[in-house]
Design goal:
By secondary structure, the chain is mostly helical. It has one helix at residues 3-25. The protein has a domain at 1-27. The N and C termini lie far apart (96 Å).
Length: 68
């Protein structure tokens, strides 16, 4: 047997194994799979903030300076 035919047979066997694994495990990600159910969290009856929220930091104040 020539090395090309051995390589071709070996390549066909590897390709068949890869194809079989791809069929068994199915598509990657959420494509083709049912969506996962979303858990709904119940809202608390009396939602009181623990502490007041500090104001957001402001940038530099730019004032107009008259030309002299």
């Amino acid at each position: 047997m020539a090395s090309e035919s051995v390589g071709g047979i070996f390549g066909a066997i590897v390709a068949a194994i890869v194809l079989a694994v791809a069929v068994v495990f199915g598509p990657i990600g959420q494509y083709g799979k049912p969506p996962k159910p979303v858990k709904a969290e119940p809202a608390p009856a009396a939602a009181v903030p623990a502490a007041p929220v500090a104001p957001a930091p402001r940038g530099p104040v730019i004032r107009e300076v008259p030309n002299q």
